[in-house]
Amino acid sequence: MRAPLGDFDVVHPAPDVLDLLVAPVAAAVRAWAGPVRAEELVHVDTDPRWADTATFLEHYGPELLGQSANCVVVAGKRGGETTLAACLVLSGTRVDVNGAVRRQLGARKASFAPMETATGETGMEYGGITPIGLPAAWPVLVDPAVADLPYVLVGSGSRRGKLIVPGKVFAGLPNAVVVEGLGVA
Hints:
This protein is of the alpha+beta class.
């Protein structure tokens, strides 16, 4: 099988490699009911040493920058309540935490969630968090530039491997909201 983007040696439909996925991602793929068939979620095996965006692009090719996205966990606070949410933006942009995220969550203050919170609440590894398999109640904020791509390279839940997913999938996830201006240069 060939990946829909990039040049990867080991490529499989995600349902065929559930054993390579962390538990919440494997469960989400197993129970998949999204806008595309589960077999269209593609897993590519990548070296965990190159999981971070800059080193990944250096090793696998800078042309992937415009086709890859980062998923980060944010915490919005208002009146003693904290709301955790995921934000998905193109890798060449940053999340507008104090503007778009804060407004969307109705929070007085928003910030990136601490690493222990992000990994503990998601069951995923830092540097590999993906919107697929997140806690069901979490808002998933998606930049329209991600949703508009034919395919997007994102984390797989662990630092080893990535998922390649049709962009429209992210706008169709439970609790997903496409937010203009979420990713800024």
